[in-house]
Amino acid sequence: MTSPLIEDHALLSDQRTTALVTREGDIDWLCLPRFDSDALFCSLLGDAENGHWSLRIAEGEVLSRRYLPATMVLETVWRSPTGTATVTEFMPITGSEGGADAGGVGAYDSTGGEPTGSTAGSLPGSASSLAGDVDDHADLVRSVTCHEGEVEVVQELRIRFEYGQAVPWVRRGQDVDGEAVLIAVAGGDGISLHGPALTAHGRAHHGRHRLGADESAAWVLTWFPSWQRVAAAPDVDAALEHTVQEWAGWLGQVRVDGEYSEPVARSLLVLRALTHRRTGGIIAAPTTSLPEDFGGVRNWDYRFCWLRDAALSLEALLAHGHVDAAASWRNWLLRAIAGDPERLQIMYSITGDRNLPERELPHLTGYEDSLPVRVGNGAADQYQADVVGEVMIALAAMRDAGLEESEWSWPLQKALVRYTVDRIDLPDQGIWEMRGEPAFFTHGRVMVWATFDRAVDAVQNHGQPASAEDLAQWIRLREQIREEILTRGVGADGAFTQTYGSTEVDASLLQIPHTGFLPATDPRMLATVARIEQDLSTQDGLILRYRTQGQDGLPGDEHPFLVCCFWLVELYAASGRRADAVKLMDQLLACANDLLLLAEEYDSGAGRMAGNFPQAFSHLGLIRAVDALAGTGQTASPAPHA
Predict the structure, then answer these.
(1) C-alpha span between 585 and 404 (Å, rounded)
(2) 349 in helix, strand or coil?
(3) In angstroms, rounded to a whole number, what is the distance separating the alpha carbons of residues 403 and 315?
(4) How many helices (H) and strands (E) does the chain have?
């Protein structure tokens, strides 16, 4: 089985989980009921026997596909020798968002009031209130309408639980309303399929259904706990209308205009699609093990909530008015870190769970033979010095946006500062989760500086309480780290270095002006940009994260990292190189697929995407780059003593 191109896929989401569907109508990746659940369609990382659901028009070709405006509802137009048809695919959005009515998640209101749905002095969304926050079903709808002539809808359904390992027990039964339904069960997972019947053939189910002009048919696949009765099928038209309203209503809270309005709007929707509706957790990507190096070992599970990625995503959402997302994420952060901030991790599950053991799935052949296929992520145990700084910057942006500190959020920040103080002399693995020896990464040290800078700002400019001793320590350490960076993190050529004492550069250094440490026009930043252009640019001008021969610690190589390229657009725009910024921006937009979705990396030589897809990092980078071009970027003002 030939692997479809990564960019051939569209994303479907119900803001609790996602599915990937190819241009030709094959759903080859689906985890239910959560982003990080075991996949039941997993052929993307193996073959057809590992589970998929294809739906196409017999002898047909795809004329076009698009998302309905301001939504994640996919519409694909097919033409066959006998007629034309439209396939509409979506995951209905159901349930409440945050708040006490959604199982006591305890969302804050947009004015920063007390947690709703929680008693005074209790942590929002604490264990007692989250106990009932279990989704009891999730739906995926595929509807076909024939517009002219006659078409035949051809399907193959192979349900395989546990990442393609478990063949379920399949039978015909009835839902709670007595309607006929196909039911598949394995362990605690149940799947039902409503719609015109499919016929068993071997270990799969097939169907061929003819539709005449103006006739429609719909199939609804539903996950449910196997010990419960099968729910009735949703009203497809009503579910579609509600889902469209949910997506468009959310995006419509902000004005997105200008030359790049369409990719910005799509990127905002992708960030929303990767945000769990009820917990507020933002995942890095909805896939695992799509390779950074085709045929190599750089295959990672990104279905978790990195504090860094989420913090940067929140900044992008805040810049476009989504204070609601910020409040929800802050609650998620409080829950994740609650109990023991000294055991801070760089990532958590969407519910804030800490245990994310990394393991391999040897039964899968991998995307284009890229092995191993991994689930879980061992990098959760790494120390990365930049993470607290990223979080502190995001929380400061929330204050600046008018979201007041809660009873718990400022104490949390003070605990994060103490965490940083205790580790101030420790080397780390860096923003890119190097698996080589720890080092003092310059970007990470700048983020340590930002931790103290934002804490001082909170006290001095926002009136947050802190003892005189704490404030004096934070100011002293801020100045100490600043002097250290400018002494040890700058090379003989005047450019910042990847790590202290090295001569390598790293694209993460492009983030320095965003922290307010130095302006983009500082000679050291201009020298850094020049070195990055010299050492990390590919022949077509895209940017690598770093040269893998250094601190990386892994065999193989990788491709240009899209968020780094967007950071370079920001730096060009902020330093007066607007023509270069626009040129690179347009080049990056050409890397997106026809639906404006972006993966983690782009293989310039082959002209294709690489890495997990779609990637939150890439889309937030796009938003920030456009804001920089428009002059509305969120780069902090340099410190007065810079």
Answers:
(1) 35
(2) coil
(3) 13
(4) 15, 21
Give the per-residue pLDDT at 555: 61
Helices 578-589 and 562-574 cross at an angle (nearest 10°) of: 160
Q: How many angstroms separate the CA atoms of 225 and 208, rounded?
A: 29
Tell me how far apart the alpha carbons of residues 215 and 150 are, in angstroms, rounded to a whole number. Answer: 9
What backbone phi and psi angles, to 5 degrees, belong to 142? -130, 115
Start-end of H helices in 49-179: 127-130, 161-164
Q: How far is CA 175 from CA 152, 182, 228, 230, in A?
A: 27, 9, 10, 5
- Write out pLDDT tens, residues 560-585: 999 999 999 999 999 999 999 999 99
Three-state DSSP state, 19: strand
Whole-angstrom Cα distance, residue 182 to residue 568?
A: 52
Of 220, 249, 223, 273, whose CA–CA distance to 89 is shortest?
220
All structural domains of the chain, each given as residue ranges with its CATH number in brackets, are 9-118+134-232 (2.70.98), 304-346+382-488 (no CATH), 489-642 (1.50.10.10)
The Cβ of residue 9 has, within 10 Å, a number of other Cβ atoms equal to: 27
HEC secondary structure over 486-502: HHHCECCCCCECCECCC
Cα–Cα distance for residue pair 403/373, rounded to 1 Å: 41
Q: Virtual CA dihedral for 297, 298, 302, 307, nearest 10 degrees? A: 130
E strand residue ranges, 254-370: 305-306, 347-348, 359-360
CA–CA gap between residue 34 and residue 615 (Å, rounded): 17
Give the pair of three-digit tokens for residue 234: 């949703």
CB-facing half-sphere around the CA of 476: CA atoms within 13 A: 8
CB half-sphere exposure, 591, CA atoms < 13 A: 32
Cβ neighbours of residue 549 closer than 8 Å, sequence gap 6 or more: none
Pairing mode, if any, of strands 52-57 and 61-67? unpaired
Which residues, in sequence order, are CB contacts of 301 under 8 Å at separation 6+? 288, 289, 358, 374, 375, 376, 377
> What is the pTM assigned to this prediction?
0.91
pLDDT digit string, tens, across residues 176-201: 998 999 999 999 999 999 999 999 99
Token pair recorded at residue 505: 């550069």
Tokens of 478: 């801020």
DSSP string, 454-494: HHHHHHHHH-----HHHHHHHHHHHHHHHHHHHHHSB-TTS
End-to-end CA, the chain: 57
Which tokens hold the place of 2?
A: 């030939």
Other Cβ atoms within 10 Å of 540 Cβ, number: 11
Query: 214: alpha, beta or left, given left = phi > 0 and alpha = psi -120 to 50?
Result: left
β-bridge partners, 62: 78
Task: Compute how many other C-beta atoms are within 10 angstroms of the C-beta atom of residue 180.
Answer: 11
Q: How far is 280 from 327, CA to CA, in rounded Å?
A: 8
Which residue would you say has higher pLDDT here, 130 or 292? 292
How far apart CA 417 and CA 405 sit, in angstroms, is: 16
